[in-house]
Amino acid sequence: MFWCAGSNNVWSSDGHDKLKAFGIAIYGFIDAWSRKVLRLDAGPSNNDPRCIAYHYLQTALKLGGIPQQTCTAHGSETGIMGVYQMAFLLLYGSGDTREQSRHAHIFKTSPKNQKIESLWSLVRKRRGL
């Protein structure tokens, strides 16, 4: 479990693989505080770091900014996104940007990335996926 200060403080993201057998991989972002779904993308891959970074950048563009922190499962697909998050906070953050960038992206095991995992659980229960 983790604490967040408010809306857009932490974005939690993860992939959903239940439809991969049909060629559909889903990747989503939610606001950890409000649990509002910020973005869901369906495509051929949710494991390609370039795709995940692209989804992150599109989410930031759509919302007009970035969170103080991103939270993902520890996988190779989120590396570029984590680097972007740290770089943006170093370039545009306020206050102690070195300290902010150190905590800009956190990795949790998939079950502990509870905010986004609760969305996948809801999808499974309501849609049988």
TrEMBL record:
What top-level branch of life does the organism fall under?
A: Eukaryota
Q: Which InterPro entries does its entry note?
A: Integrase_dom_put
Tell me where in this chain the Integrase core domain is found.
Answer: 4-123
> One Pfam family from the UniProt entry?
rva_4
| Designated name of the protein | Integrase core domain-containing protein
This chain's source organism reads Cronartium quercuum f. sp. fusiforme G11
Q: What is the lineage of its organism?
A: Eukaryota, Fungi, Dikarya, Basidiomycota, Pucciniomycotina
